[in-house]
Protein backbone atom coordinates (compact mmCIF):
# COMPACT_ATOMS: atom_id res chain seq x y z
CA UNK A 1 0.00 0.00 0.00
CA UNK A 2 1.69 3.18 -1.22
CA UNK A 3 1.27 6.49 0.55
CA UNK A 4 0.84 9.60 -1.58
CA UNK A 5 3.72 12.07 -1.32
CA UNK A 6 1.59 15.22 -1.61
CA UNK A 7 -0.73 14.35 1.32
CA UNK A 8 -0.17 13.91 5.02
CA UNK A 9 -1.22 10.75 6.79
CA UNK A 10 -4.05 12.62 8.52
CA UNK A 11 -5.37 13.89 5.17
CA UNK A 12 -5.32 10.38 3.76
CA UNK A 13 -7.08 9.03 6.85
CA UNK A 14 -9.74 11.72 6.48
CA UNK A 15 -10.16 10.97 2.76
CA UNK A 16 -10.44 7.24 3.42
CA UNK A 17 -12.98 7.76 6.20
CA UNK A 18 -15.07 9.87 3.83
CA UNK A 19 -14.85 7.15 1.18
CA UNK A 20 -15.99 4.57 3.75
CA UNK A 21 -18.96 6.75 4.70
CA UNK A 22 -19.93 7.16 1.05
CA UNK A 23 -19.57 3.42 0.47
CA UNK A 24 -21.77 2.61 3.48
CA UNK A 25 -24.41 4.99 2.12
CA UNK A 26 -24.25 3.26 -1.28
CA UNK A 27 -24.47 -0.13 0.43
CA UNK A 28 -27.57 0.98 2.33
CA UNK A 29 -29.22 2.25 -0.85
CA UNK A 30 -28.55 -1.01 -2.68
CA UNK A 31 -29.93 -3.07 0.19
CA UNK A 32 -33.10 -0.97 0.17
CA UNK A 33 -33.48 -1.50 -3.59
CA UNK A 34 -32.88 -5.21 -3.19
CA UNK A 35 -35.63 -5.47 -0.57
CA UNK A 36 -38.13 -4.04 -3.06
CA UNK A 37 -40.28 -7.04 -4.02
CA UNK A 38 -41.59 -5.51 -7.23
CA UNK A 39 -38.20 -5.67 -8.98
CA UNK A 40 -37.80 -8.12 -11.84
CA UNK A 41 -35.51 -11.09 -11.28
CA UNK A 42 -32.78 -9.87 -13.65
CA UNK A 43 -32.72 -6.44 -11.97
CA UNK A 44 -32.38 -8.13 -8.56
CA UNK A 45 -29.41 -10.16 -9.82
CA UNK A 46 -27.72 -6.99 -11.13
CA UNK A 47 -28.24 -5.24 -7.82
CA UNK A 48 -26.95 -8.30 -5.97
CA UNK A 49 -23.77 -8.26 -8.09
CA UNK A 50 -23.31 -4.55 -7.50
CA UNK A 51 -23.88 -5.12 -3.78
CA UNK A 52 -21.07 -7.69 -3.71
CA UNK A 53 -18.74 -5.27 -5.51
CA UNK A 54 -19.56 -2.47 -3.07
CA UNK A 55 -18.83 -4.81 -0.15
CA UNK A 56 -15.44 -5.65 -1.68
CA UNK A 57 -14.73 -1.94 -2.11
CA UNK A 58 -15.75 -1.31 1.49
CA UNK A 59 -13.39 -4.05 2.68
CA UNK A 60 -10.57 -2.47 0.64
CA UNK A 61 -11.23 0.96 2.15
CA UNK A 62 -11.34 -0.46 5.67
CA UNK A 63 -8.05 -2.30 5.12
CA UNK A 64 -6.47 0.89 3.80
CA UNK A 65 -7.72 2.84 6.83
CA UNK A 66 -6.28 0.23 9.19
CA UNK A 67 -2.93 0.47 7.39
CA UNK A 68 -2.93 4.27 7.57
CA UNK A 69 -3.75 4.26 11.27
CA UNK A 70 -0.98 1.74 11.94
CA UNK A 71 1.46 3.96 10.03
CA UNK A 72 0.28 7.02 11.97
CA UNK A 73 0.71 5.13 15.26
CA UNK A 74 4.30 4.18 14.37
CA UNK A 75 5.10 7.81 13.54
CA UNK A 76 3.65 8.93 16.87
CA UNK A 77 5.68 6.35 18.82
CA UNK A 78 8.83 7.48 16.99
CA UNK A 79 8.21 11.12 17.94
CA UNK A 80 7.60 10.20 21.59
CA UNK A 81 10.79 8.10 21.69
CA UNK A 82 12.81 10.92 20.10
CA UNK A 83 11.41 13.46 22.57
CA UNK A 84 12.22 11.17 25.50
CA UNK A 85 15.76 10.64 24.21
CA UNK A 86 16.38 14.37 23.80
CA UNK A 87 14.97 15.06 27.27
CA UNK A 88 17.17 12.33 28.80
CA UNK A 89 20.31 13.67 27.11
CA UNK A 90 19.47 17.18 28.30
CA UNK A 91 18.92 15.97 31.88
CA UNK A 92 22.24 14.10 31.81
CA UNK A 93 23.93 17.25 30.52
CA UNK A 94 22.43 19.28 33.39
CA UNK A 95 23.42 16.65 35.96
CA UNK A 96 26.99 16.25 34.70
CA UNK A 97 27.73 19.80 33.61
CA UNK A 98 25.77 21.61 36.26
CA UNK A 99 23.28 24.36 35.76
CA UNK A 100 25.61 27.30 35.03
CA UNK A 101 23.47 29.16 32.55
Automatic annotation (TrEMBL):
Q: Which residues form a coiled coil?
A: 13-71
Instruction: Cite the entry's keywords alphabetically.
Output: Coiled coil, Membrane, Transmembrane, Transmembrane helix
Keyword Nucleotide-binding attributed: no
What parts of the sequence cross the membrane?
Answer: 76-96
> In what way does this protein cross or attach to the membrane?
Single-pass membrane protein
Cite the InterPro entries for this sequence.
CC167
Q: Which Pfam families match?
A: CCDC-167
Per the record's keyword annotation, is Membrane included, yes or no? yes
- Please tell me where this protein is predominantly located: membrane
Its subcellular locations are: Membrane
Q: What is this protein called?
A: Coiled-coil domain-containing protein 167
What is the originating organism of this protein?
Answer: Molorchus minor
